[in-house]
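Exercise: predict the structure of this protein bound to 2-phosphoglycolic acid.
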Amino acid sequence: MRVIVERDQEGVSRRAAQFIANLVRRRPTCVLGLATGGTPLGTYTELIRLHREENLDFSRVVTFNLDEYVGLSATHPQSYRHFMQRHFFDHINVDPRDTHVPDGRALDFEAYCEQYERMIADEGGIDLQLLGIGSDGHIAFNEPGSSLGSRTRLKTLTEETVRDNARFFGSEQEVPRLAITMGVGTILESRQCLLLAAGATKASAVRDTIEGPITAQVTASALQLHRDVIAILDEEAARLLERRDYYREVERSQAALQEGRLGKFGLAPS
Ligand code: PGA
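Solution:
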């Protein structure tokens, strides 16, 4: 896993937006996997800026969101569909028909979840999946104990997640108890994952994810099995990582290679 540590949340957002913008420029028909929550908000703001000021073109991009609360309609102010419209889709030139957020009001959930998986496959799979991380180590709503091979399905939220998300609702009582979510297996099939984390409340989940054992008790740790994951963290979220100095050295080497400073590796042209 590549680990990038930025100074603060703003740095995390800018860096994540750069990776996404580079992909969209390189591959205008790419399929983006998107996430909701407080963490990716700044990334969306930066992408909107790039769209407005630097003509970043989303007109042929297809998107799939990770999850949605069960029982909330698309227009409910706390639904993830509403979040995406308000914070991203309404401000860029993506074709609304190409934005997919699971339908939290589907009645036949089993059939619907299969259909969601099929839609992703029909688009050729997800090129880049944006991910936040829960304080309990979840990715999407794959709560501790979720099968690491799981696919899109219904999931019961843990008390910890309900508490964490109560800040967006009036009270804990109003937080839905069920969500429809891509599975860990679904996420692992995307070609690249960007895992974002900021703030001290994420530090232990980040440590367990990156330096702990692979376990269904910390579903984000399954990302260790993926061949192309980039974790972008702020200083506080990275605070408990033991190998921080090594991750920084890797980034310095990467930068030197990219800039053609080969002398550092005994490769200076003669
Ligand atoms: P947050 O949520 O970005 O609002 O912290 C992350 C998550 O629960 O996956």
